[in-house]
Records
---
Amino acid sequence: RALQMSGAGGPPHVKLTVEWDTSTKERLFGSIQEEVVQDAESVWRQQQAHGQQHSCTLDECFQLYTKEEQLAPDDAWRCPHCKVPQQGTVKLSLWTLPDILIIHLKRFRQVAEQRHKLTTLVRFPLRGLDMAPHVAQRGQPGGQLLGRWAPWQPPLRLPPGCPRDHLYDLYAVCNHHGSMQGGHYTAFCCNALDGRWYSYDDSRVEGVREAEVSTRSAYILFYQRRHA
């Protein structure tokens, strides 16, 4: 009856709780082992599909990080002009970029009182990471500002001859192996003298191919501005 009430096809997830009368339960189930109900094959397939980890690019991570979000009605702000609460939007932008760019990937997620490790493969470039699309457009060469800014907080204008170098090259990766209960850290580093990548695992150091640097264990990425 619960499935029929939810319409055609049923809801994506159903949890039924049965409260037994003690005498009825003892009459139906002779032991605790008999209480276990085997899940249908469709349930197992859904669990397998949900457990499969997808992949994404580092560029997609930055796009989500700087994506404009609609504020909830409870977070409405009072407009200084019309004096009426307005449901606004919020957006994070990168204002300036450092010579050394350290990117910390979110590998742990908290659900209720439990924390889980995320093993999604984040594909990141070893050379030529272009951060220009993710930097706030603060002005044009002629000095005209893009967008509308509050008069008491004008955006910063860079000197006319200041280069806008947004290309970065990777030089190290910190990896985390294991789970919340126990883990181990390793690193991939690019030797500045020979340009080759090496794997560092405690006292063990060995060469690795560039194709082996991007893994599901990548935790912290270290980039350097190309022309710094």
---
Amino acid sequence: MTDAPRRDIKNHVLFEIATEVANRVGGIYSVLKSKAQVTTAEYGSTYTLLGPLNRASAAVEVEEIEPKDPAMIKTIKSMNERGVVTLYGRWLIDGAPRVLLFDTKTAYHKLDEWKGDLWSTAGIPSPPDD
């Protein structure tokens, strides 16, 4: 029997996922914006918000920057090589949290694969039309 790998609880990352990251659509935008400064102060560069890329809002809400974390660099490069367009930067709100935005139109071809991964690795179901 092999031992399970130990988790590194000191060098963790925090991802927050929402459709309203740097994309004002409704009330969740205000919630994210109101807690970003505190969360960024606590987690620093290990906190990244993930969301869809809306080019119109990102043009005025996000300052594109180069990631410094090797794992983030590798992940973004891998996604871009697979045809998924991304934007990494700072959201221009209090706290300036890092964001990774995805052009969902370029990711549709991966949707079924990702849903399969969610199910097989975490048991998370996703309806066919979701």
---
Amino acid sequence: MEGTAVLLESKSSPRNLLNEMHQLRLLGHLCDVTVSVEYQGVRADFVAHKAVLAATSKFFKEVFLNEKAADGPRSSVFLHEVQGADFASFLEFVYTARVEVEEDRVQRMLEIAEKLKCLDLSETCFQLKKQMLESVLLELQNFSESQSSEEESAAHAGVPPEPKAAAAPGAERYAPGPPVARPSQGASPEAAAAKSKEK
């Protein structure tokens, strides 16, 4: 009689596997492909494992699966218009699932991810760009709110608001309330006061 099946699952194994493959690549052990990249006449070579590249990049998977047996196993791949620093970062990402790059290189990493059809790196770049955009928008919102609160506190402190537009010369302001005797043009203020007393 068979017993109940149980699941044996390691949470650390995927990370350990990646770390071990990364160490093998850094030491040049068991590497079976050299990827050469060139950008504006500058060329760089990187050794890697076909299985890792094929598992993380549809571009490399297509290249390696379409090799003809008659040609023998391909030991090199050449990529045009790819900077060495960007491909080094790409390799670090596919071997470790993480890489640190400058903010201004995120767009370039997205472009290389799309060129090499690496879905994980594309999604990671999109998420990071989204976070960066949200951060900028939040800073702008906070700045706008702080400007508004500064204007409000200045108004509450008794600082008179700046006039919107200057009154036209000769124009009078009329405030609601009881009529006030206004001197006619040419009459002196004393004459106007005498007239109001007579009334």
---
Amino acid sequence: MLNIVFLTNSWLTSFNQPGLCITVAMLLHYFLLAAFTWMCLESVHFYLALVKVFNVYVPKYILKCCIAGWGIPAIVITIVLIINKDFYGNGSLSKSHPYSNFCWIQDNTVFYTSVVAYFFLIFLMNTAMFITVLLQIHSVKTRTQKTSRFWKR
């Protein structure tokens, strides 16, 4: 959906409908945040599968993942819309190119808070999960080598 909204954004902007532009910008923002959130959930799943291998039963795991994956971005979008729906709009990249119009976030503070900071938090969490998984794999490898040396003796 992110790709579809992104690819149709310029075309939909050409209709010069402010409501349509706000909707397209909001959908683009939502699906971008949803992609980041699902990436984070994938790293949590990776952690559970490789580090917490045993006794990891989480009741209604998929439902909880879906609520987090689709709900957290919806909360961010709702907060932005409640504060001011005009944060979304038509931003021209260049005045000399009329077809370069693009519906997106118009306020830099909102952009840096709701996209860049959000991505940065997801990136930090993914990095922490990745390092934890690498350390776990390394410790398993070390234990296996020690065990094999013991049996060789």
